[in-house]
Amino acid sequence: MVANVKDLPQLSSKLEEAKRTAAYNAVDQNINFEEHRIIGIGSGSTVVYVAERLGQYLKDPARHEQVANFICIPTGFQSRMLIKENGLQLGSIEMFPDIDIAFDGADEVDENMQLIKGGGACLFQEKLVSTSSKKFIVVADYRKKSPKYLGTNWKQGVPIEVVPSAYVRVTKDLETKLHAKKVVVREGTPAKAGPVVTDNNNFIIDADFGEIHDPKLLHTQIKSLVGVVETGLFIDNAEIVYFGNDDGTVSVMNN
Ligand SMILES: O=C[C@H](O)[C@H](O)[C@H](O)COP(=O)(O)O
């Protein structure tokens, strides 16, 4: 039997516990052991607990056979490692383009469940997986819930993955055509001199637009710039969001 969420050992901080509570509840309440087989596993520090929970079910004799048959589709290098470390079966989106259910974190979630993602530079593969999934579940801690508009809590800007040779052109277009307040090519310092290179060998630009009142329109405008691979605005994609609160409870947002 896997441990009940209420009986788990303490972690190093309330924040980590909030992430774990969100992730464990999301898995427990959404995985259908009989029907689901292809599972998307996202990136970041919250989804770590999704993979951990699936790993616990794998060790549970009552669920072992079903979970051993799950094929987990990663959204990047970190996610691939999470799948392997928890003993889960790794698959690729090329082999399994139709995903039953996917779990991932978010940097900010607005009241309509539109998301900013890509704080960890994994947005392209995350969008590929989440939009290939019948059900996309977001797991987040209390800091990610926007009071109203995207861009309120997440001040770093919208992450945008760009083809390296186009970064100057995209930077100019974001400033002049889309009137971004601040545009920064993400650097890897101190761990790396120069730009962050994504798992797809692209660069990331963070473009600050302040409060985003129409994320759908902004996504379309950014996406139309030559050189943009994908934006970190995830529009009409999430079905349920689990927020772990600092008092140990969970809030659920859904359509
Ligand atoms: O590129 C990174 C991803 O979009 C993450 O899912 C996002 O940054 C949230 O990460 P965390 O769970 O660490 O807050």
TrEMBL record:
Alphabetical list of CDD domains matching this protein: RPI_A (cd01398)
Name of the protein this chain belongs to: Ribose-5-phosphate isomerase
Catalytic activity, EC: 5.3.1.6
Gene Ontology biological process: D-ribose metabolic process; pentose-phosphate shunt, non-oxidative branch; pyridoxine biosynthetic process
A GO CC annotation given for this chain: cytoplasm
Chemical reaction(s) catalysed: aldehydo-D-ribose 5-phosphate = D-ribulose 5-phosphate
Gene name of the record: KAFR0J01910
Native source organism of the sequence: Kazachstania africana (strain ATCC 22294 / BCRC 22015 / CBS 2517 / CECT 1963 / NBRC 1671 / NRRL Y-8276) (Yeast)
GO molecular function per UniProt: ribose-5-phosphate isomerase activity
Pathway: Carbohydrate degradation; pentose phosphate pathway; D-ribose 5-phosphate from D-ribulose 5-phosphate (non-oxidative stage): step 1/1
InterPro entries documented for this protein: NagB/RpiA_transferase-like, Ribose5P_isomerase_type_A
